[in-house]
Amino acid sequence: MKKAIIIGSGIAGLAAALRLKKKGYQVSVFEKNDYAGGKLHAIELGKYRFDLGPSLFTLPHLIDELHQLFPNEEVDFNYIKKKTACHYFWEDGTSFEAPADLENFAVKAAEIFDEKQKTLSKYLQNSKMKYESTKSLFLEKSLHKSNTYFSKQTLKAILKIPFLGINNTLDQENKKFSNPKLNQLFNRYATYNGSSPYLTPGIMSMIPYLELGLGTYYPQGGMHRISQSLFELAQKVGVEFRFRESVKKINHSNNKVTGVTTEKGTHDADIVLCNMDVFPTYRQLLQDIKAPEKTLKQERSSSALIFYWGIKKSFPQLDLHNILFSENYKAEFEAIFNNKSLYEDPTVYINITSKQSPQDAPAGCENWFVMINTPGDYGQNWENLVIKAKKNILSKIKRCLNIDVEELIDVEYVLTPQGIEKNTSSYRGALYGAASNNKFAAFLRHPNFNKTIGNLYHVGGSVHPGGGIPLCLLSAKITADLIPNTNA
Fold first, then answer.
1. How many CA atoms lie within 13 A of 291 on its CB side?
2. Of the candidates 20, 25, 12, 22, which has an alpha carbon nearest to the alpha carbon of residue 62?
3. What is the gyration radius of the CA atoms in the chain, in angstroms?
4. How distant is the alpha carbon of residue 446 from its chain centre?
5. Is 262 helix (H, G, I), strand (E, B) or coil?
6. Backbone φ/ψ region at 467: left (φ over 0), alpha (ψ -120 to 50), beta
7. Per-residue pLDDT reduced to its tens digit, 177-195
8. Where are the alpha helices (DSSP H) in 222-358?
9. Which residues pair with 79 in a beta bridge?
10. Is the pLDDT reported for residue 149 higher than 50?
11. Burial profile 124-142: b = 16 or more Cβ within 10 angstroms, e = fewer
12. Which of 31, 42, 198, 335 gives 224 a disulfide partner, CB atoms 3.0 to 4.6 angstroms apart?
């Protein structure tokens, strides 16, 4: 039986392990941590449970597909569809419970923001068109294989590119709304790939369709259940996991991969698939080959500063997903991307899983995942920045929600970009690998295969098609499609 080694057990690594197992490979996963899931991890603080990483679940069929590869293996994984996508707040008292479907969103947003419903419906339909026109090219196939460009579907997508807002920024695309709050709301979707709405191309206006058109979901048991269900399935079908065993080198001979060397020895393989960020992959594991410097020098995506707070009270006005908007959104992104600093009036995201899973907090309490967007780690004094950020976040919550939350904090854990890099090997703590702050970003991402070493492949948020749970899962699918069955 041919052997495949996977470096890293993030969501893409787990998905790739299942797909290669289905193709008949003997699969071993090497993981430096003592758990599977990468950023999709969780912690318990006292009587509170927190999901550490991604908090938004869309395109659940991508997880279902993986479970369906092995229909005879039963692993508990269920989810519900949310009626409300997100609850938005501004300092002037405006709030908006955004429905998680296109028609109701247009109706409610027109009422709240005094915007024409026709304008909103047209924008959302355009978002759907952009997604459906380009997903086959940008999300489902390798951009770095010539045969990708010869299908009728791909050619149709290419012909539509000039009409997809590629030459505008997302902010320019959203200027069609008369109410600046609505413009700000749709600009927020740039953060879904760690970019700035004032730089990322207008084609990113397809992202609202993923949330509002295809739906927002919640996995029963929390986001951590996504990675754990895949881990449990992989174990059941015979994937080997070697925890606390870091890979030190990817071995190759005659331009073809031969295996890996870890802290404990050398392991041969016919296929090696790396779920590690491409920057440390080249700098640490592939020091003996010429690195693709242009790719590695791409601007990194934003990172995050997250406070995990156990709150000794419950707040009916809040939902699973909540956003408290900055009064100067442009200045916030200039601080993050231009100054590599934090803005004094940050946009605050609050995720509360106890709204859906009451067992995540004691009775009458809530578990708050409180996040602001930040630059990656460029040597800033994070100890001081954490102190300032906490003060600014508490002030923002008080101004938007009229809640003095500081005295209600029961337990606290803080995760900085430094911590994210340490835990997940994401260079500079970037959440999505490279930023998408120019129109060529999709084509500049590292391919899912290695151009120098045969049978070496790459998956995860730092390679095509990008970061976030859905794109990481698609990277595993694209990569698996490049690898032959063992009987081929």
1. 16
2. 12
3. 22
4. 17
5. strand
6. beta
7. 999 999 999 999 999 999 9
8. 224-236, 278-280, 293-296, 329-337
9. 219
10. no
11. bebbbebbebbbbbbbbbb
12. 42
**Distance separating alpha carbons of residues 133 and 292, to the nearest angstrom:** 30
Query: Helix (H, G, I), strand (E, B), or coil: what is residue 159?
Result: helix
Task: Flag whether pLDDT at 160 surpasses 90.
Answer: no
**Does the structure show a pLDDT above 50 at 279?**
yes
Which structure tokens are listed for 362? 């004691």
Mean pLDDT rounded to a whole number for the chain: 93
**Which residue has 């032959």 as its token pair?**
484
pTM over 0.85: yes
Cα distance between residue 274 and residue 299, in whole Å: 21
Residue 163: pLDDT band by 50, 70, 90 thresholds? low
Q: Which amino acid is at 443?
A: F
Q: How far is CA 90 from CA 83, 180, 306, in A?
A: 21, 12, 21
Query: How much is the average pLDDT of 357-366?
Result: 98
Give me the phi and psi of 106, to 5 degrees please.
-60, -40
Which residue type, as a one-letter code, is found at position 334?
Answer: E
Omega prior to 316 cis, within 30 of 0: no
Chain position carrying tokens 């915007």: 115
Handedness of CA 194, 308, 343, 127 (dihedral sign): positive
Q: Comparing C-alpha atoms, which of 170, 59, 69, 174 is closest to residue 468?
A: 59
- Residue 277 in 3-state DSSP? coil
- How do 48-51 and 42-45 pair as beta strands? antiparallel
For residues 61-99, one letter each, b for 16 or more C-beta atoms within 10 angstroms of the residue's C-beta and e for the rest, the string is: ebbeebbeebeeeebebebeebeebbbbbbeeeeebebb
Which among 115, 116, 124 is positioned nearest to 94, based on CA atoms? 115
What does the pLDDT look like over 99-113, one tens digit per residue? 999 999 999 999 999
What's the whole-number mean pLDDT along residues 429-450? 86
Backbone φ, ψ for residue 302 (5° rounding): -70, 165
Crossing angle of helices 61-68 and 224-236, in 10° steps, is 10
- Cα–Cα distance measured from residue 433 to residue 429, given in angstroms and rounded to the nearest whole number: 9
Q: What is the DSSP letter of 204?
A: G
Q: Is residue 457 within 8 Å of 479, Cβ to Cβ?
A: yes
